[in-house]
Write a structure and sequence with these properties.
Elements: H1 2-20, H2 23-37, H3 43-50, H4 54-64, H5 69-95, H6 100-138, H7 162-179, E1 187-191, H8 198-202, E2 216-221, E3 227-231, E4 239-243, E5 252-255, E6 271-273, E7 279-285, E8 288-294, E9 299-301, E10 309-310, E11 319-324, E12 330-337, E13 348-356, E14 365-373, E15 384-389, E16 393-399, E17 406-411, E18 419-425, E19 442-446, E20 452-457, E21 464-469, E22 477-483, E23 493-496, E24 502-507, E25 513-520, E26 523-531, E27 535-543, E28 549-556, E29 565-572
Helix pairs in contact: 1-2, 3-4, 5-6, 6-7
Transmembrane segments: 24-49, 69-91, 103-127, 162-185
Keywords: Membrane, Transmembrane, Transmembrane helix
Region (Disordered): 193-218
Length: 578
């Protein structure tokens, strides 16, 4: 009967939400319905003491409370629901302040104590309120109602020696969780948008930053244990979503590019993490590329900064990537169409490497390193990537969104005086490929021995693959298939962990699981780390301050059709090194 009452209350809330689309009104209806159902708890004593049937005991309970409905429902709501929930919340908050192992052991004990204490407390509240209603209706004292109780000997008191035995299951459970002898996957997950609804953000004013289900660009570890996510939509200004700690239950959401800062609302802001914990972010102003340095809550132009490059092609379709040099300064990879005379003239995709001796990049040095066949490069931040090899040698990777070809540009020296271009993934014939833009980019890392690794989705079969280069120039490479493909999946995310193992985050074939592949040599093991309602359009990964991979992703329940979606953070806590 309680399940039916709960279902009826939930149905009432859903019935209000569907036609009105007002969540607060649905919650109000749900609370009122639950409050109205509270006197139904008095049906339990009616069954035990008077042998009533289920429906009969419910009718009897409401007759008992007919003249004192409001105070009876309030008493039951406090004693059966609010007080136990408040006690559990207080204990949870207190245990959250303890170190991880102590918090786990504490929860094992607290859960046992709560299970032993809450149910008798709730029963006592219900029984006391039932006797009070009976006494009020019959004008007798509570003690005079003892004749209605079952006959029998008085209950034996609980012996204190039984308490350790009662606490033993909680301690055993906590010990198994801490030791994890079977290597079970442990995951910490947060719904970032749970505390502020995306629908409310989409209705915000023009002066507020906005998060939509396709605006996630990147995630970086902040100072301390926090995280910073880069948010940038199509023809919109970039913004920063910062979390003070790894749980990300509290956030700040601020503009990185204020709309009145004379910047272009171009898509695809590119970012890189500086050694001091600040964030480096690209911005466009009248087709000129500039840099911003960002804290968690604000960005300012890099000191002494100037225009780094100027785009001939529209800035939204120009490839840009950043990498910080270990010896200081940074490298900017820049790809744009060459200038030609006449619209019908053949063009090339010119890839340049821009060297900056300092973060401000006040004296950029540009060197053209490749002239590639022109292609319809789409406005996606993942079609160009750059990483630093040993000796501060830049390695650039370019993904052709028309043919699926990958170009790897490597440098034999730090100044890239002798660039070399290889094509480890060949182009597919245009007549075969009719899936323009569905596989949108790549992710690049370089190992300590100088050999690159590239995660991408193959244009031919849409499979998620990891390209393991045998040589520093990637002239020879092995393609490792991680999962079969499906349409409209995000570009995989790729990082190296502290053990120098490549980790690849991607969506599985049917878009219902978030996968994490851990690779050692040419062997990769994939594990499902989260369920998802659908394949969202945002996926990013970083190594947090605790050395764990943190994945930011979009859980899309059909946002194109006004369905619900959420920005999620998933951190696998236990990854086997085998």
């Amino acid at each position: 009967m309680g399940a039916l009452a709960f279902g009826a209350a939930a149905a009432a809330g859903a019935g209000v939400l569907m036609p009105t689309d007002q969540r607060w009104l649905a919650n109000a209806v749900l609370v009122v319905a639950a409050y109205a159902a509270m006197p139904g708890l008095l049906a339990v004593p009616g069954i035990l003491l008077h042998g009533c049937s289920g429906l009969g005991s419910i009718r009897r309970a409401y007759r008992l409370t007919r003249l004192s409905f409001l105070p009876t429902a309030l008493t039951l709501a406090f004693g059966v629901v609010l007080v136990p929930c408040a006690a559990a919340w207080a204990l949870e908050s207190g245990l959250g302040l303890l170190p991880g192992p102590l918090a786990t052991l504490g929860w094992g004990l607290v859960a046992t104590v709560l299970a032993l204490a809450i149910t008798p407390f709730q029963a006592a509240v219900v029984a006391r309120q039932f006797l009070h209603c009976m006494a009020w209706r019959t004008e007798v004292h509570d003690s005079d109602l003892a004749h209605g109780l079952p006959d029998g000997p008085p209950p034996r008191p609980v012996r204190p020696s039984l308490l350790p035995a009662a606490l033993l299951p909680g301690l055993l459970f906590s010990g198994v969780v801490l030791v994890n002898p079977f290597g079970w996957l442990e995951v910490a997950e947060t719904n970032v948008t749970e505390s502020w609804q995306p629908t409310e953000r989409s209705d915000s004013s023009d002066n507020d930053p906005e998060l939509r289900p396709f605006d996630l660009r990147d995630v970086h570890p902040g100072r301390g244990t926090g995280l910073t996510m880069v948010i940038d939509g199509f023809e919109d200004y970039a913004s920063l979503l910062a979390c003070p700690d790894i749980s990300c239950r509290k956030t700040t959401f601020t503009w990185a590019e204020p709309p009145n800062a004379n910047t272009d609302a171009a898509p695809g802001a590119v970012s890189a993490l500086l050694p001091d914990g600040r964030l480096l972010l690209t911005t466009w102003s009248h087709q000129a590329l500039r840099l911003l340095t960002c804290e968690a809550d604000k960005c300012v132009p890099a000191p002494g900064s100037r225009n780094i490059a100027r785009a001939y092609y529209p800035s939204g379709y120009t490839g840009v990537a950043l990498a910080v040099r270990k010896g200081g300064g940074l490298v900017v990879a820049f790809a744009d169409k060459e200038r030609v005379n006449g619209d019908d003239s053949p063009t090339k995709d010119i890839v340049s490497v821009i060297f900056c001796a300092e973060v401000s990049c006040s004296r950029p040095e540009t060197r053209h390193v490749a002239r590639l066949d022109a292609s319809a490069y789409l406005p996606d931040v993942h079609n160009l990537a750059v990483a630093m090899a040993p000796g501060d040698r830049p390695v650039v990777a370019r993904f052709d969104t028309t043919s699926g070809q990958i170009h790897v540009i490597s440098c034999a020296d730090a100044a890239c005086l002798r660039p070399r271009v290889t094509r480890p993934v060949p182009a597919y014939p245009p007549g075969v490929n009719d899936r323009l833009g569905r596989e949108t980019g790549l992710a690049l890392v370089v190992r300590a021995d100088g050999r690159p690794m590239i995660a991408y989705r193959d244009m031919n079969d849409r499979a998620t693959k990891l390209l393991d280069c045998r040589t520093p120039d990637c002239a020879q490479a092995d393609a490792i298939t991680l999962d079969a493909g499906g349409p409209y999946r995000s570009t995989p995310a790729l990082v190296l962990d502290r053990a120098a193992r490549p980790l690849v985050a991607y969506q599985n074939q049917d878009g219902t699981r978030l996968m994490l592949a851990t690779c050692i040599g040419r062997r990769c093991v994939s594990t499902a780390v989260a369920r998802m309602r659908g394949a969202g359009e945002g996926l990013a990964m970083t190594m947090n301050g605790q050395g764990k991979p943190t994945i930011a992703w979009i859980d899309d329940g059909g946002s194109l059709f006004r369905g619900e979606w959420a920005l999620m953070l998933t951190t696998p806590l236990s990854l086997s090194a085998d």
